[in-house]
Amino acid sequence: MNTTPALTTYVVAGGCFWCLDAAYRQLRGVTEVLSCYTGVKRINLATSKCAPAPPVMLRQSP
């Protein structure tokens, strides 16, 4: 019988992924953090300009 709890995977996007990566690594239960670039853009509502929205994937145990 496998008693290992299932991991939950989240993908979030925000400003600097290095900052997000570092913050998520400090959360209890987070077992993996992966930062990367994509072609996804976000719109800055204040300036109406597009900017990259690099995602961060993390896995967390319940």
> Which percent range describes the beta-strand content?
35-45%
Query: What is the number of strand segments?
Result: 5
Count of alpha/pi helices: 1
Strand order of the largest sheet: 1-5-2
Number of domains: 1
Decide which structural class fits the backbone: mainly beta
Point out poorly predicted stretches.
none
Mean of pLDDT: 77
Describe the sheet with the most strands.
Answer: 3 strands, antiparallel
How much helical structure, as a percent, in the residues? 10-25%
Give Rg in angstroms.
Answer: 15 Å
Order of helices and strands: EHEEEE
Q: What gap, in angstroms, lies between the N and C termini?
A: 19 Å
Which of globular, elongated, flat, extended, rod-shaped describes the shape? elongated
Would you give an account of this structure?
The longest helix is centred in the middle third of the chain and has 9 residues, at 17-25. The chain has one domain (8-60). Strand 3 and strand 4 form a beta hairpin. With 62 residues, the protein is mainly beta. Strands 1-5-2 form a 3-stranded antiparallel beta sheet, covered by helices on one side. A two-stranded antiparallel sheet has the order 3-4. The radius of gyration is 15 Å and the shape is elongated. Helices cover 15% and strands 42% of the residues. 6% of the residues are buried. The chain is built from 1 helix and 5 strands; from the N terminus they run βαββββ. It has one helix at 17-25, and strands spanning 8-13, 30-35, 41-44, 49-52, 55-60. The chain starts with 7 loop residues before the first strand and ends with a strand.
